[in-house]
Amino acid sequence: MSKKILVVGGGISGLSAACALKNRGFEVLLLEAKPRLGGVINTVSENGFRAESGSNSVMVHSQKTLDFIKSLGLESRVENSSAVSKKRFFAKNGRICEVPMSPLKMLFSRLFSFAGKLRMLGDLRKPPHPSDADPSVADFTRYRLGEEALDYGMNPFMAGIYGGNPEKLSARHAFPPFWNLEQKYGSIIKGAGKARKEKAAAGNFFKPVMISFKDGLNELVDALAKKLSQNAVCSARIASIDYESGGWRVCWTTDSSEDCDVFDEMVLAVPAKDLKSLPLPFTLSKMFEPLDSIEYAPVISYTMGFKRSDISHKLDGFGALIPEKESKFRILGALFVSSVFGGRAPDGGATITCYVGGMRRPELFNYSDGQIRKIVLEDLRGLVGLRGEPVFERIFRWKNAIPQYNVGYGEKLEAIAEIEKEFPTVKLLGAYRGGVGVSNCIENAAAIAEKMNP
Ligand SMILES: Cc1cc2nc3c(=O)[nH]c(=O)nc-3n(C[C@H](O)[C@H](O)[C@H](O)COP(=O)(O)OP(=O)(O)OC[C@H]3O[C@@H](n4cnc5c(N)ncnc54)[C@H](O)[C@@H]3O)c2cc1C
What are the residues facing 249 on neighbouring strands? Predict the structure, then answer.
């Protein structure tokens, strides 16, 4: 008889885990507290405009993730990001400025001063940090590449990924690519070239691709939900979880039913902040305490649709991130949604999503929709030369949007390892572990499913 697994949480992490487990022959039940599956992912369309509530795209790093998407029958629905979206912008001195993506463009870029560029080369001769160090992203960048690289590079970049504060984020945990290059090769610049060559020599030619789906990310959620149609319960309130004779006896209610069942193992795929709300045995819930202090950035996602002719900028890129120093602007960044993927705006229209708040300005989360709207419109007027009013609007608020891998995060990983050692039939999954991106969540779910013994 196959093992019975309970998955708690129906965001992309829980959905992917439940589906991967089902594919491996486990008997699976997924319980989701909300009336719909998908967690922070949801797509809304109206009059040809399309808004994503959370993630707008998936950066795929491995063939395995593409294969998983294929296994859901979504191959023909995948939409690759446009060529133009390789171009990125930051704000500099109140104006939009292209980010140099090649050494040659870097040489001529006005994003950094000549002295700032020279200072970045200091990376070539700075000794690496001790292997047990845990510097912040800000201290790490200052040390290796200088203050300008922090202010007009890492600062907006961390706002883009984490809505995060580089003074608090841990270099080794929040941005492992740079940390690993330093640790392995002694320098980011030297290491980047060497790592590329080693990857090719090892026969790894997979180039990361940014994708979505023709009708938005909901297609991914819908396909997973369809696979799990007999295995998922929404609006589920878990009443009790008890350890009983080698299994987990779980009772839950919905508006119309009450159920109990016994499971061999549990995958808890809820945000770290929600773990404490689960009615778990005292010894287990006590072990979750260190995870409760993982900070989450509050983020407001405001999508607006405009007449294309109302915007003077070409919108020929992925979007624009705002360095904290650029105090004229209050948004964290603007994503040029309809330039990245087709079908996001009607002919003659343009869709832009702005992100507001984050760890940089958490207080803005408490502003009214009207106040946020005013901020977004003012910033877009300065950033991309917006003249008119939006013809489409959607606002989404996420109080606990993105977990922060702050300095000291290693202790959280130790706590997780300890929980899974003490309770081998409990697995923890979610954006607070192994990366915040949608592809990280899918890959981590697959890894957990692969490790479980039928
Ligand atoms: C505004 C925003 C923009 C983003 N942009 C991008 C992007 O462009 N690219 C990218 O890769 N990533 C992006 N992300 C990150 C990514 O979308 C998330 O990290 C990822 O979707 C998290 O998935 P999850 O399943 O771990 O968590 P969630 O989506 O939070 O799902 C957790 C689920 O658990 C449920 N739950 C909680 N408690 C219980 C309980 N007691 N019982 C049952 N269920 C429970 C919740 O209701 C929820 O459905 C973005 C995130 C946000 C918020």
Answer: 242, 262
Residue 14 Cβ < 6 Å to ligand 1: yes
Which residue has the CA at smallest separation from atom 17 of ligand 1? 55
Specify the pairing of strand 43-46 against strand 319-321. Answer: unpaired
**pLDDT at residue 448 tops 90:** yes
Mutate-to-test residue for ligand 1 from 57, 254, 270, 278, highest number of ligand atoms within 8 A of CB: 270
Q: What is the pTM of this model?
A: 0.96
Nearest protein Cα to ligand 1, atom 26: 430
Q: In sequence order, what are the beta bridge partners of 91? A: 96
pLDDT at residue 279, rounded to an integer: 97
| CA 129/CA 144 separation, integer angstroms | 10
Residue 16 in contact with ligand 1 by CB distance below 6 A: no
Structure tokens at 13: 């992490």
Flag whether pLDDT at 111 surpasses 80. Answer: yes
Distance (angstroms) between ligand 1 centre and the Cα of 221 equals 12
Q: Is the pLDDT of residue 454 over 90?
A: no
- Is there an atom of ligand 1 within 6 Å of 398 CB? yes
Residues 6+ apart with CB under 8 A from 103: none
Q: Distance, CA 259 to ligand 1 centroid (Å)? A: 26
Reduced to 3 states, what is the DSSP secondary structure of residue 279? Answer: coil
Sheet holding 58-60, edge to edge: 58-60, 209-213, 78-80
The closest of 356, 346, 353, 357 to 318, measured between CA atoms, is 353
Q: What is the mean pLDDT of the chain?
A: 96
41 CB near ligand 1 (under 6 Å) = yes
Confidence (pLDDT) at 199: 86
Are 22 and 228 within 8 A, CB to CB?
yes
Mind listing the domains of the chain with CATH numbers? Answer: 4-40+60-75+216-293+405-451 (3.50.50.60), 114-127+134-203 (1.10.3110.10)
Residue 339: what are its φ and ψ, rounded to 5°?
A: -90, -25
> What is the total residue count of the chain?
454
Check residue 406 and give its pLDDT: 98
pLDDT value of position 126:
97
Tokens of 434: 């192994």
Q: Tens of pLDDT along 301-355?
A: 999 999 999 999 999 999 999 999 999 999 999 999 999 999 999 999 999 999 9
Residue 1, pLDDT above cutoff 80: no
Q: Mean pLDDT check: name the lowest of 97-111, 127-141, 238-252, 378-392.
A: 97-111
Asked if residue 353 has its Cβ within 6 Å of ligand 1, the reply is: no
Measured from the Cα of 335, ligand 1's closest atom is: 8
